[in-house]
Design goal:
Rossmann fold; 15 strands; Dihydrodipicolinate Reductase, domain 2; homodimer; 2 domains
């Protein structure tokens, strides 16, 4: 830190990275470097690329070593979803001694699906005294950390069911494209279903099982289109009746031969009653509803920036939202 | 621990202590001692005193040293609300090297109202390598930890309002007496209002402010009766129209001259729509509702027992629910 100021490097300045920059800068975090491979962004000021009203005095580069030169306290890593593809990016940050908060979905809980990559990253982080955390609203909070917290008042827990309904129509354009809004069902099956839609349900299931101390037999996953019953127009997509409005994904965690965790995610344009709802069967039963749901584009950068104080104070290694102290907003200045 | 089994001593076997024993025993925690000053309980088996169907092979004593002799991993401390009065009880447990989970309301966050007692206890716990945690459903979760967690997805937080409405009619008898159900309003004002009703709202406000990094100017508190509009009969109390049905307490935390935290607690017999509701004003606004609310008598022992694994792994000292890793149910065997 520069005095009391936390210094940061932004690694990846897409729609989520832009918002992380905005929220972090607003909270008094000082950017000292920025990395992106897009030639249109390289050479520009980070404030400009992040669509802020002011310059941040930091020039975007495609050279990680250059950006990481000032030894930032933390690197915000917001590039892609797959842990196998981001190894060198996070490694470079860790090797520079920086803590890392990443929105790479598979990093939120890599211990189940990618145990070797997780162990390697944990070892590297330990070597360099760095902490690495994968988080965001989902995976990272809505369908894993949040329901885990809601089991704290339970004497017994038989099963956990989470329903997340997001109106993709109020989300960013790439998200609407990601869920296939406006495609024919046939094309949706070909282009969206095979790409597995939202990445992170299996990670959330594994994180939740790990949090509760449950051993998973298996994780099952399904994906199908939500078909529009009436036409929907958003600023980004035009959906006719009978076309795909978005995705409906269900992930199920099997414990002791029974479906013990069920995560039901629907992201589609024109969604009615968007919400997050957690139902716990146990002693007592609980039903908890977040009216309107946690808006993904608003809340992901918040979860990321709010994790910073805990990541900076944590022991070295690959952390999860469950290991760290109680997640929360923290006033930074 | 005996092998993998966590060993415990129960300190105080009133209505809450009984339930802690039941939940802990059910979860495989092995009791090795039990303390109570009630002559009717001393000499009896803990299982009998806790109303379990089986003996636990542990005889209740009024001698803390005797009960703590077997060096338990953890002491469940469930006696009284005031930190000034429980010093020696918790000190004895800490001196025996045990970690302590206590339902003493003022221990949930003593740093604001009792900073000297908190510092002394922290020092003693550090000396003996012990961790001390005050928790329960309220204070400890419903009106502090839970709303704190709900700020994790917020870019900014302007204010937090929590409403907790409990139907005292389904709670334990002493709780119904504590809220003054069935007293005339005049007698309620004399006997209940002056005893301040539920203990813990100021602690919850201070904990929440501490969690968010807010500096409190002041804490304001009010208490008034809920007056029955129709007669209510419970197994423990008989309330006529116009008599007190219970309490309505409001605690307000002032930050920067503004009411930033408002905790509104109503516990009365015949309550309609019992619930816990958290409203956050910020970016984004959030409204989260727990249908029916967290039932105090069921959830307090759960919060206490669920804290054990984190308390056992924590560094020595006086901990809070906010410092420890994400609270949750954890399967113990």
């Amino acid at each position: 830190m520069t005095g009391d100021t936390i210094t940061a490097v932004q690694y990846g300045i897409g729609p989520i990275g832009q918002r992380v920059v905005e929220v972090a800068a607003e909270r008094g975090i000082e950017f000292v470097g920025a990395i992106d491979i897009d030639p249109e962004k390289v050479g520009e000021d980070l404030g400009t690329v992040a669509d802020l009203s002011e310059s941040l005095g930091v020039t975007v580069t495609d050279d990680p070593d250059e950006a990481l030169g000032p030894d930032p306290d933390v690197v915000f890593h917001t590039t892609i979803s797959a842990i196998d593809s981001i190894g060198r990016q996070v490694e470079a940050a860790v090797a520079a001694g920086a803590d890392v908060v990443s929105t790479t979905e598979e990093l939120a809980y890599p211990w189940y699906h990618h145990p070797d990559a997780a162990a390697d990253l944990d070892e590297l982080a330990n070597e360099h005294g760095a902490t690495v955390l994968g988080t965001g609203i989902n995976p990272g909070f809505a369908m894993d950390t949040f329901p885990a917290v809601l089991t704290a008042p339970c004497q017994t827990v038989d099963s956990v069911a989470v329903t997340r309904v997001q109106d993709a129509g109020v989300r960013r354009g790439p998200l609407q494209a990601k869920v296939g809004a406006g495609l024919s069902v046939e094309r949706w099956e070909r282009e969206i279903a095979t790409k597995a839609g939202h990445v992170g349900l299996p990670e959330s299931i594994a994180m939740l099982a790990g949090a509760l101390g449950w051993e998973l037999d298996d994780i099952e996953a399904s994906i199908e289109p939500v078909v529009a019953e009436t036409p929907v127009e958003t600023g980004h997509a035009s959906v006719a009746s009978g076309e795909a409005a978005g995705i409906h994904q269900v992930g199920t965690g099997i414990v002791g031969g029974e479906p013990a965790i069920e995560l039901d995610l629907r992201m589609y344009v024109g969604a009615e009653s968007p919400r997050d709802r957690v139902r716990i069967s146990g002693t007592p039963d609980l039903e908890v509803t977040v009216d309107g749901g946690f808006h993904g584009d608003v809340t992901t950068p918040a979860v990321v920036v709010n994790a910073v104080p805990r990541v900076l104070e944590a022991e070295a290694g690959l952390a999860t939202m469950i290991d760290l102290p109680t997640p929360r907003y923290t006033h930074l200045r």
